[in-house]
Amino acid sequence: MDNLIMVIFGGTGDLTHRKLMPALYNLQLEGSLPKRFAVVSVARREKTDEVYRGEIYESVKRYSRNRVDGENFKQLASRIHYYRLSFDYADGYIELKRYLEDMDGRHGTDGNILFYLAVSPENFEVVTTNLNASGLASSSTSWRRVMIEKPFGEDLTSAEYLNKCITTVFGEDNIYRIDHYLGKEMLQNMLAIRFANSLFEPLWNNRFIDNVQIISSETKGVENRGSYYEKAGALKDMMQNHMMQLLTLTAMEPPVDLSANSIRDEKLKVLKAIRPFTEDDIRRNCVRGQYGPGRIADKPVVGYREEEKVSPDSNTETFAALKFYIENYRWAGVPFYIRTGKRLNNDFTQIVIEFKFLPGIPYFKNNAEVSPNLLVIKVQPEEGTYLQFNAKRPGTRNTIQPVKMDFCQNCEVGVNSPEAYERLIYDAMIGDQTLFTRWDEVEYSWRLIDPISRLWRSEKADFPNYASGSNGPSEADLLIRKDGREWRSI
Ligand code: BG6
User: Fold this and answer.
1) Looking at ligand 1, which residue's alpha carbon is closest to its atom 15?
2) Nearest CA residue ID for atom 13, ligand 1
3) Does 171 fall in a domain?
């Protein structure tokens, strides 16, 4: 691994405190940081290195998955620096450049810089432009990479514009667009489960699969992110990015090799094979919802419209469910049902593959207990795979009951599987783009989501339409029931 300086724009923000610094601490514990390494956190407020390190210590103590020991933290802290800069002050970047040269000399980091834009999307452009103008964004003797947080644009047009700004400065090969779901263990495991098992791969198509369900359910509400969420909603916050990544990994063809671009080529083909939603599709196959007041873990909670920085007559969806088809040789005719929502009754993310029934064998035909075979990829909180199949109930003549094989990965290897951000930061440090989204993936997922978003924004919904702590709006159940199916979760 090359030596490098990581420059975090947004060094005092939530993401840095909750995710980035704890991830760096855990990488340090595992000996996975470069030999010579420094972090420069850039933000607006005035602060000394000492004060900043103290604040980081508190956050790492609170959010790290490993206990913080003083010695290891001290080692990391000695490499953390704070730099004050107003992001729109162009001359400040020239001073920052000098400062980074000085840091490079002090820490011996060979001139390499990994920028992390942990700032709100309105700042992506100004930071990139100023990095470019100051000469910080390129070097002939060392490398530059940039990690960029979601949301990548608000729609296709703004994403295209943003992409142009960033690619002209850094070039696609140096851009690491974060979708933190790709850093989750079970998503990385998906290729192994699918392509390393003769038990699954031959059945992974429309001859044997009846439908696929991808479900992400959260009990939390919008917390203190009301002003961001008002503009995003579930469609842009979860569907356009995380849910699409779950989908493409589930549905893609085997890549020719495991290189970043071969995998991303296959994921892209899935998105291209989904027919864009027409207005009629949206009305028939897309359901939106917004939570009202209710109870979560036996405590009363307010509705979305009563949350901080949310309009009292907000039309923003906190729940979305879609049904669509992937029109290719493998999947033609298999419906994909995808749903995500906040303030629901449970916290989990699962991919459910529901297999077709076998042609009725006479003596099983009228047996009410025969259930479809299910393969469930449990993404979180438990990580693992679950297989449901039919067997005879012991002691009966021929009564069938569903039985299960349940593999809990994080029970076996301990609850401590690495956090997504550890893997992602590590990969960007070694220059592996596999777990980051390529521009065309972003582009095509916007092409799918944009028409839905436009229609939903233009028409007032009858919100709120589900209670906090419930299973979501009843229309979402109808969406699948009218096809004679049920949402499955285990
Ligand atoms: C984020 C969304 O990208 O993902 C949040 O902005 C959401 O609204 C979160 O809660 C879910 O991530 P995870 O890792 O907790 O499933």
Assistant:
1) 218
2) 181
3) no
Atom of ligand 1 nearest to the CA of 229: 8
Asked, for residue 392, whether it belongs to a domain, the answer is: yes
Q: Are residues 249 and 101 in the same domain?
A: no
What's the CA gap between 38 and 7, in Å, rounded?
Answer: 8
Of ligand 1's listed atoms, the one at least distance from the Cα of 184 is 14
- The pocket around ligand 1, CB under 6 angstroms, is made up of 218, 237
Question: Which residue out of 152, 229, 238, 424 has the highest number of ligand 1 atoms within 8 Å of its CB and is therefore the one to mutate?
Answer: 238
The vertex-95 CA angle with 138 and 172, nearest 5°, equals 20
Residues carrying an active site annotation: 242
pLDDT over 60 (residue 414):
no
Instruction: With respect to residue 428, please indicate whether it lies within any of the assigned structural domains.
Output: no
Residue 266 Cα to ligand 1 middle (Å):
25
Q: What pLDDT is attached to residue 143?
A: 97
**Shared domain check, 208 and 134:** no
Q: Based on the structure, what is the number of domains in the chain?
A: 2
Pocket test residue of 242, 344, 380, 445 for ligand 1, highest count of atoms within 8 A of CB: 242
Q: Say if residue 151 is preceded by a cis peptide, omega within 30 of 0.
A: yes
Please tell me the residue having the least CA distance from ligand 1 atom 14.
Answer: 181
CATH number at residue 354: 3.30.360.10
The whole-angstrom separation of Cα 217 and Cα 136 is 42
Q: Given this model, what pLDDT does residue 128 score? A: 96
Per-residue confidence (pLDDT) for residue 366, from 0 to 100? 65
Q: Is the per-residue pLDDT at 95 higher than 90?
A: yes
Percentage of the chain modeled with pLDDT above 70: 97
Same domain, 187 and 297: yes
Domain that holds residue 400: 182-423+437-481
With respect to residue 123, please indicate whether it lies within any of the assigned structural domains. Answer: yes
Count the alpha carbons within 13 Å of 428 in the hemisphere toward its beta carbon: 33
The pLDDT mean for the chain works out to 94
Residues 132 and 196 in one domain: no
Residues 6+ apart with CB under 8 A from 480: 323, 337, 486, 487
| Domain co-membership, 97 together with 197 | no
Strands 319-325 and 286-289: antiparallel
Based on the fold, state whether residues 371 and 452 are members of the same structural domain. Answer: yes
Instruction: Please indicate, yes or no, whether residues 127 and 201 belong to a single structural domain of this protein.
Output: no
Taking residues 195-206, what's their average pLDDT?
Answer: 96
8 A C-beta contact, residue 178 and residue 268: no
Contacts of 196 (CB under 8 A, 6+ apart): none
Alpha carbon of 242 to ligand 1 centroid (Å): 8
Residue 112 has pLDDT above 70, yes or no: yes
pLDDT for position 196? 95
Q: What is the CATH number of the domain that holds 98?
A: 3.40.50.720
* 378 and 470 co-located in one domain: yes
pLDDT above 80 for 413: no
